[in-house]
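Training component of the fellowship. As part of building independent skills, the fellow (R.M.) carried out the full modelling exercise for a liganded target. The chosen ligand was FE2/S2 (inorganic) cluster. The inputs are recorded below so that the supervisory panel can assess the work.
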Amino acid sequence: MIPETLMEKPKGGLTRRRFLGKAALGCAAGAGGLAGIAALRSIAPALTRTKKVFSVGRLHDFPVNTFTLLPKHKVFILRDHEGVRAVSAICTHLGCVLKRVEDEFRCPCHGSRFDDSGQVISGPAPSALPWFKVDLAPDGRIRVHTNQRTTSQDKLRLF
Ligand code: FES
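Fellow's submitted model of the complex:
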């Protein structure tokens, strides 16, 4: 006698063999989907490329001794008596936009804190904030190059 679990069910019913076949097909489709997502992620920077070099305004737009957050570009512009610098406003933990609170940068998401030079005061942020090259565009506007890293001491010297 054939056990009931091995017997084919009538057409339209789900036998063990059909179920396993469909499960295998589902797994293959899932794996293919994950591979597709991985492939898309690898080319996503090209598809979602944000401007790496952009003008942020003129010198008089940035008061001396201030950090100005530019939400559109997610950078802070620091203007002091000597010149202008730019630091990322993106938390190195999970990418939240930082706020300037008292004399430091603070992440509203999980509480990371960074000092004026972008160094981590307290985590969970794993690394310091990157600084970007700043120069003057031909039209006299301040231009930030987020594709060119620099140090917290390197600035566009104005005087
Ligand atoms: S995203 Fe900033 S601490 Fe988590």
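The panel noted the following from the submitted structure. Residues 53-157 form a domain with the Rieske Iron-sulfur Protein fold (CATH 2.102.10.10). Residues 36-48 have pLDDT under 50 and may be disordered.
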